[in-house]
TrEMBL record:
Stretches for region Disordered: 1-24, 93-124
Species of provenance: Oerskovia rustica
Residue ranges occupied by any UBP-type domain in the UniProt entry: 1-107
Name this polypeptide is given: UBP-type zinc finger domain-containing protein
């Protein structure tokens, strides 16, 4: 990992905090608004869990736009990649503080009780 050379964007090392836990098992904003998600992403800086860009509300990208926290890590069981919003590239990186994924018994999309039957028609 290398630092950014645009002068204003934090480098990758400054964008990681390996000690902060995730904000919860699901998308923080969807949970507070009774929404639902397709996949989850976790901010590598502050632990915020947001929904992916396939999800109706795209809260992970909104979190990046609001905070400038450039790195998200997948929060899906069995996956371990990062996404850098600045370079628009994925990469492998270190494990964050546990848990590293939402509970395995949590449905995808989820949560099950809020996912509409026509969810495939509503995704991006």
């Amino acid at each position: 990992m290398t630092a950014a050379d645009d002068g204003g964007t934090p480098g990758l090392e400054e964008s990681l905090d390996l000690t902060v836990p995730p904000s919860g098992p699901g998308c923080a904003e969807c949970e507070s608004s009774d929404g639902w998600w397709v996949h989850l992403r976790r901010c590598a800086r502050c632990g915020h869990v947001g929904c992916c860009d396939t999800s109706p509300s795209q809260h992970a990208t909104a979190h990046y736009r609001e905070t400038g926290h450039r790195l998200m890590r997948t929060y899906e069981p069995g996956e371990d990649w990062y996404w850098d919003y600045v370079s628009e590239q994925s990469f492998e990186g270190p494990d964050l503080a546990p848990p590293i994924a939402h509970p395995e018994d949590q449905t995808t999309p989820g949560p099950a009780q809020r996912v509409p039957e026509n969810w495939r028609e509503l995704v991006h």
